[in-house]
Amino acid sequence: MFSKERTDGRFPDPAKQELWESMTRDFLNLRNYGYKDLNHWMEKQTYMAVGLTMMAAAEFGVEATPLEGFDPTSVDKAFKIRETGHSTTVLMALGYPDPERVYASPISRFNADQLFTFI
After folding, report:
1. pLDDT block averages, 10 residues each, the chain of length 119
2. Which of 19, 49, 109, 116 is the one with CA 20 to 30 A from 8?
C-alpha cells in the first residue's frame, strides 16, 4: 500500500509519507507482537466494510447478510484466495427478496433493555 500511496501522491511531503509509514508499521507491530491480535483486529476492520456495504445495498433495494460458520480453507481453495495473499473471514449474501414469499413467522429477540445499557 505504501508504494501505491507514493505513486498516487497521497503525501506530497516525503517526510509526512515517511512518518505515516513509520506510524503504520509501529501500529501493526503492536497488534502483531504486543497484543498478538492482528488477525482479530483485521477481521473487525472487515466488518466495518461489510456494514457499510450492507447499508449501500439497502439503498439500492438489495438485501444483504453476513455469513459465518463456513470453512474458510474450503472457500479459499475454491476461489484461490490464498494465492492472492489473503484469506476469507466473512462471506456476504446479496440478492433480491422473493416478492411472492411472505415471511410471517415471528422471530424471537430479547427486549432492548436486556441488550443495551444507555448512559
Report:
1. 95 96 95 92 92 97 94 96 94 92 85 92
2. 49
In the block, which residue shows the cell 462471506?
Answer: 91
Q: Can you tell me the distance from the alpha carbon of 10 to that of 17, in angstroms, rounded to the nearest whole number?
A: 8
pTM of model > 0.70? no
* Beta-bridge partners for 66: 92
Place of cell 481453495: 77
- pLDDT of amino acid 12: 94
Residue bearing cell 438485501: 63
Rounded-to-10 torsion of CA 109, 45, 70, 92: 70
